[in-house]
Amino acid sequence: MKNNTNNTGKTFIGQVVSDKMANTIVVELEYTNRHPKYKKIVTKHKNIYSDNKLSAKTGDTVKVRETRPTSKLKRFTLVEIIKKAIAQ
C-alpha cells in the first residue's frame, strides 16, 4: 500500500505568531467574511499548531498542510517558508 501523505490535506498560508515551544509553531490564519445581518466585512483569525521542521521564526509567512494528528494539538505540518521576517 502506498503512502500518499505528501499530496493529501488542505494547504493554508499564515503568519507565525509564536515559536517558543520545542518543535512547534503557532500559525495565525486570517479570513474575511460578510456579516449576515449587517453586511459588513469582518476579519477573523484562527490559531493553529504545526510542527517546525524548517526552523520558522516569529513573523515568517509560511504554508502549512493538514496531516494526521501528531500530538494532542498538532494537526498541521510546515510545507515551506514563503517570506522571512525582517530581523530587528
Describe this structure in words.
Helix content is 0%, strand content 50%. The protein has 88 residues and is mostly beta strands. The protein has one domain: OB fold (Dihydrolipoamide Acetyltransferase, E2P), CATH 2.40.50. Strands 3-2-1-4-5 form a five-stranded antiparallel beta sheet, with no helix packed on it. It is globular, with a radius of gyration of 15 Å. The model has no long low-confidence stretch (mean pLDDT 91).
What's the SSE blueprint?
Elements: E1 11-18, E2 24-34, E3 41-51, E4 61-66, E5 76-83
How many runs of DSSP E, i.e. beta strands?
5
Low-confidence stretches: none
Order of helical and strand elements = EEEEE
CATH superfamily: Nucleic acid-binding proteins
Mean pLDDT: 91
Could you give a short account of the major beta sheet?
A: 5 strands, antiparallel
Helix content: under 10%
Q: In percent terms, what proportion of residues is strand?
A: over 45%
Shape: globular
CATH topology: OB fold (Dihydrolipoamide Acetyltransferase, E2P)
For the record, the count of structural domains works out to 1
